[in-house]
Amino acid sequence: MSTIIVDKIAKSFGATQAVKDVSFEVRPGEIFGLLGPNGSGKTTSIRVILDIYQPDSGSVTILGGPMTNVKLNQIGYIPEERGLYQDVPLDRCLTYLATLKGLTEDQVNERLPKYLAKFDLTDHAKKKAKELSKGMQQKGQLIAALIHDPEIIIIDEPFSSLDPVNTQLVKDLLIEQRNAGKTIVMCTHQMNQVEQLCDRLVLIDHGRVLLEGELSEVRKRFRTNEVIIDALNPLPEQLKGVSRIEKLNDAYRLTPQEGITAQELLTELVEQGIKLNSFEVAVPTLDEIFIRVVKEGNGDYE
Amino acid sequence: MRNILKVFKFEFLTVLRRRSFILSLILVPLIPSLLLGVLNLINQDKSPSFQELIIQEVANPLPIGVVDLGNVIKEYPDWLTQGRLVPEASEADAREKTAAGQLQGFYVIEPDYLETGKMRFIKPQVGMLTELLQKNVLQDLINYNLLGANQDRFLRYMNPASFTYEYFDPETADTRDQSSGATYWVPYSVTMFFYMFVVISSGLMFNVVTKDKENKTIEILLSSTKPLDLFIGKMLAYGSLSLIQISVWLGTLVLLFNRNSSILSFLGNFNIPQSVIVASVPFFICGFLLYGSLMAGMGAVAPNLREGNQFASILLLPLIFSVMAMSQLIMEPFSVFTTFMTIFPFTSPVVMLTRLSVGPVPPWQLIASIALLLAAVITVIRGVANLFSSQYLLSGQKMKIGLFLRTVFIGHRRV
Hints:
heterodimer, A: Rossmann fold, Alpha-Beta Plaits, 10 helices, 27% strand, elongated, B: D-Maltodextrin-Binding Protein, domain 2, 20 helices
């Protein structure tokens, strides 16, 4: 059973249609990437999932049914625009946010010191948020999203304005949570992070789904049969079975003709006496897939 | 419901722990208390009071001479002069006695006094209080003699009428003591007090909602609780805080005036009527709910504090108008205008208390006022509940006052 099922949701604000027709499923225990360029409808979709916005049409199923107060307490959310009460001590602010998620004050008193220690914030617990660095405030927000031990973690742009150390901290945390069986929805446009973390993804733009699937399957789908070789001697201008030779920095990208496999291309290179340092089938990066899909998608609209 | 209580508790305790709130709670009543304490201390020391000075002056053994060249004064009755004015045969005698320290000085009533009123006062040194007191005595003495040296006639002249009032309709009659300063001081003070309270407490609602938006906590809150729970929790918290504040301040004021009525006698009989104290609770609560809701709605719609502030003052216009019209409300408490302001729900939270501090208010006006106020409170809270939605709270769109007012008073329109 899917943890989250988003079924054909649409949401407008006045004349602006933020989400037109978005459907996807998030499975238990996976890190799911909700991808899309700025203004594509990612945040609106998340807010609909969280019941912050009511969809104009379509529906969302969470943990087997519609959203309830109990289910809301099983979700940890970190919005893109991070915020804490600036004039309130960190521990009091986190206690309040945790109690809103259904924890009793005793439970918070038991759990909070552990989280503060884990995020190296113990010495800063009594400081007001405005006295903390941006990184510390981000950690505080992570605690607010995790302290109630949620089943689902939804995190919008998890790595925005984080330094490399804190980026690694968040990545480790997400992997740790996935290993603990939590379902994570990660909303971002940082493709390298998606490639490292996500099991499955959906790409939306202009409020519509352009692409959905497992990361490996998506890559396979966009594989072009091109190969990249590092040759020790120069290539001839033409090669049998190759339609295009592109010189890269210290390698060549070969585009095979229709029906020619990578194996056949390798055989041809060997027969031509070309000495190779490396030979690899070119798999498109998620960045390339993202740009291509978004461009094609926009072309569809136009 | 549970989240309402959590929101209430957090907001309430956050403000209650704030140094600025504690200071304002304590300092505002403390400062007048200290001032009155100092006045009390001054009163307790050996320096003579104004009254004592007058008594000393009256008891001064040195009289003032009267040289009556106009032949006006026939009698110097002791009950009137108390020995303070003594007849002198001639100016030379009077001058001699003054020089010898037997007189403080002397008056000369000129021969043509009856035609011109001319009189001279000869004295060795300035004594303002002496002059003030003795001049009055001299005038009384002249009046007494001009009235034929008849004590009864003189006393009637001094107090020609003793009124008792009978009102055609006691319900609508202005029964105030027009000679007392308190007749005007009390309503002015009550009006300003409640005006300030409604404005300050509803302004808190505007600030807290705008702040939640500005410090980006609103989206986290909305992922945990319903907007209406937030709205109600905050209203309860800030309403309670304002009620605590008003109770402490008003209580201190009442206590101060009761304990120090003699020191504050220059204000007249400054007693805050019981009816104002009783009515202050429901009218303040309703006033806060009305304006606090409007301000919270404005905070929900405004993209930031600066932009919202421009529009917030528009919402306060009825209250500002009440203060501007205060003189007329106090001077003409039974006019049509005042009656309208008393029952109009956007002015009644302040004007009703002004009216009650002026005198009794007809029961029908009290009932109409509270009924209309409650109806307005319900309408506005329902309207603002529409505005207090995620759609508005998370929107950064430019606000339009027309859309705001339409949504609050007519119904929900989506942006």
